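[Meeting: bench + compute handoff]

Bench side (C.D.) handed over the final construct sequence. Compute side (W.E.) agreed to return the predicted structure before the next meeting so the bench team could plan truncations. Sequence as handed over:
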Amino acid sequence: MKVKPYLKAIAAAVAAGAASLVTALDDGAISAQEGVTALVAVLAACGITWAVPNKTDPEIAGRYE
């Protein structure tokens, strides 16, 4: 399984989840609602980022496929 096509979406999901959890930990605990919000942020970031294709350079388009 090649990870490279999914790496951008994985990085976006990790960043969104981390940002959401850091905000949730401001009071020292994570409630169920904050956990659900973090999960939704991860899924949304992953889905939206995965749906947007990478820009390809026509000169090197066939090298990595």
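W.E. noted at the follow-up: The chain has a mean pLDDT of 85. C.D. will use this when planning the next construct.
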